[in-house]
């Protein structure tokens, strides 16, 4: 996509045509990184839907503690996402940080069984997100360097789809184990199996040809030299993320509306399944029609879902809203990353992804904490309404301020 026109790049006449042909032509690196993410997310999402239940039923912590834990974990890791992105641009070596990142995350989850209070859970969630901070920006830059400009959307969409496949497998495994009366603590321990497989596969990552360090090795982390549209997009993304908060609050709301402990992982698996089915096609569609229509459609869907949850959203409506949230993820996760790669100078993509990941994660600290406080003090309606309002403001800013920018 041209950074100025917003239109998709011209296709190479000799390039494979058709969705499946393009998918099969993607590089070994794209598929390998996708399988690693699948295994890592299978481990992560065996635990993720159970953390609110574990805090509430075992450690006796409320929504405000949950908000603080999720906010601190994501915000602190976000600083590393910028640092790792800058280091990636300077060294053009992604593998080491990716491998270390998956190793830290794989170790953190089984150690949750040792936590005796919510502070211990926060420390281990921090360790988990620390690993995410190390690997995210180098991985995103590596993917951009491993595909042509014309296939960037489908590559990111495939990665996110495989990531979400793991997010289907993990909750289903957790639900099955809970149905067999396996304790939550044992489920935490079992996450070591897919985590070790992900770490082993990460050892086979290779850097793309021509992905050598630039002649000038000076560190350049500033935003001032980045395109104006990219800088404005980061501002709007920050506003949107302030309303997004942690998805654990969606699971908490579902629990309040009568979804049982065993059904919670199944509900989250449904969200991920929708993201798997639609993620790659919607990202591939953005290669053809541009990123803007897909991104705006996803953000509109987010506003509608949160408004509905503010009103009520029980019974079959709740299931529809959660599946709709999966469609929102499908329309945004891969397309947002492709949009960032489109706007960023090639030699500074690691730094651009660092800033993107920094803003989208750091804003989760006030977002999750304030959402939790409002949820606890004023009720779910006020919390979800505020999120929907911030989503609407972000849509207007994106349309009137970002898309009209001329670099």
UniProtKB/TrEMBL annotation:
Keywords: Membrane, Transmembrane, Transmembrane helix
Domain called Major facilitator superfamily (MFS) profile: residue spans: 29-406
Coiled-coil residue spans: none
Keyword Cell inner membrane: no
Pfam families for the chain: MFS_1
PROSITE patterns given in the database record: MFS
SUPFAM superfamilies the record matches: MFS general substrate transporter (SSF103473)
Membrane-spanning parts: 51-76, 97-121, 187-206, 233-254, 266-285, 292-311, 317-335, 355-375, 381-403
Molecular function terms from GO: transmembrane transporter activity
Matching PANTHER family: C-METHYLTRANSFERASE, MAJOR FACILITATOR SUPERFAMILY TRANSPORTER
Record protein name field: MFS family permease
Taxonomic source organism: Novispirillum itersonii
């Amino acid at each position: 996509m041209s950074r100025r026109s917003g239109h998709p790049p011209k296709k190479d006449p000799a390039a494979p045509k058709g969705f499946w042909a393009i998918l099969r032509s993607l590089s070994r690196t794209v598929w390998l990184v996708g399988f690693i993410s699948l295994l890592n997310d299978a481990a992560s999402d065996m635990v993720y839907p159970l953390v609110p239940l574990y805090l509430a039923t075992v450690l006796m912590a409320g929504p405000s503690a949950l908000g603080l834990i999720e906010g601190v974990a994501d915000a602190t890791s976000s600083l590393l996402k910028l640092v790792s992105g800058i280091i990636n641009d300077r060294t053009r070596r992604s593998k080491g940080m990716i491998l270390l990142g998956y190793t830290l995350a794989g170790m953190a989850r089984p150690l949750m069984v040792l936590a005796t209070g919510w502070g211990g859970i926060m420390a281990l969630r921090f360790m988990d997100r620390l690993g995410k901070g190390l690997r995210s920006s180098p991985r995103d830059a590596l993917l951009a360097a491993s595909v042509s400009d014309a296939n960037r959307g489908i590559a990111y969409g495939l990665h996110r789809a495989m990531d979400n496949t793991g997010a289907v497998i993990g909750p289903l495994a957790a639900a099955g184990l809970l149905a067999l009366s396996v304790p939550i603590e044992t489920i935490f321990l079992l996450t070591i199996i897919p985590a070790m497989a992900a770490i082993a596969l990460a050892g086979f990552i290779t850097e793309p040809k021509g992905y050598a360090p630039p002649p000038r090795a000076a560190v350049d982390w500033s935003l001032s030299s980045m395109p104006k549209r990219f800088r404005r997009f980061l501002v709007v993304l920050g506003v949107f993320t302030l309303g997004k908060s942690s998805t654990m609050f969606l699971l908490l709301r579902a629990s309040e509306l009568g979804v049982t402990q065993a059904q919670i992982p199944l509900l989250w698996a449904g969200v991920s399944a929708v993201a798997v089915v639609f993620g790659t096609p919607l990202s591939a569609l953005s290669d053809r029609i541009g990123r803007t229509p897909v991104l705006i459609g996803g953000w509109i869907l987010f506003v509608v879902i949160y408004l509905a949850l503010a009103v009520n959203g029980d019974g079959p409506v709740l299931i529809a809203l959660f599946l709709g949230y999966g469609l929102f993820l499908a329309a945004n996760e891969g397309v947002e990353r492709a949009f960032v790669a489109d706007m960023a100078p090639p030699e500074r993509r690691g730094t651009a992804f660092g800033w993107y990941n920094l803003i989208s994660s750091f804003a989760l600290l006030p977002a999750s904490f304030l959402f939790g406080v409002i949820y606890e003090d004023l009720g779910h309606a006020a919390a979800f309404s505020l999120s929907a309002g911030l989503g609407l403001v972000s849509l207007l800013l994106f349309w009137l301020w970002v898309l009209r920018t001329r670099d």
